[in-house]
Design goal:
By secondary structure, the protein is mostly helical. The protein is 51% helix and 0% strand. Helix 3 packs across helix 4. The radius of gyration is 28 Å and the shape is elongated.
Length: 124
């Protein structure tokens, strides 16, 4: 719940108490035991296995982790990414996107290299 939703809910309880003729505490909503955050697909043991795999080879993606750890087959890639980022606090290894080189940029680079005498790697 956000703060606004909590305030709206409290206001709703006050109105309900006035209409029904009782105290606000009589209408509080409690969760059932066992409901909520307890039932998770990814256990602590699985998180430790993910962490060990990523420490051994940090460039593994979520898809590759699912292939190497069979217990992660029922978990989505997005969930694995979220666990790595938020719960395990591991740094992101995503490669930086590089801009495509235009013909003008290539010609400019070639002319600069020929002026400075730098050797060209690859094709000419």
């Amino acid at each position: 719940f956000s703060c606004i939703n909590i305030l709206r809910f409290r206001n709703f309880l006050r109105v309900l108490a006035k209409v029904k003729g009782g105290k606000e505490e009589d209408f509080t909503v409690t969760r059932k035991t066992g409901s909520g955050f307890g039932n998770r697909k990814v256990t602590k043991e699985m998180k430790n296995a993910i962490k060990k795999k990523l420490q051994a080879s940090p460039m593994l993606t979520a898809k590759r982790l699912k292939e190497r750890l069979p217990e992660l087959t029922q978990v989505t890639n997005k969930t694995i990414q979220r666990i790595c980022k938020e719960e395990l606090k591991l740094p992101s290894r995503k490669m930086v996107r590089k801009p495509l080189r235009t013909k003008h940029m290539q010609a400019k680079s070639l002319s600069l290299r020929s002026k400075t005498g730098q050797r060209l790697s690859g094709r000419r």
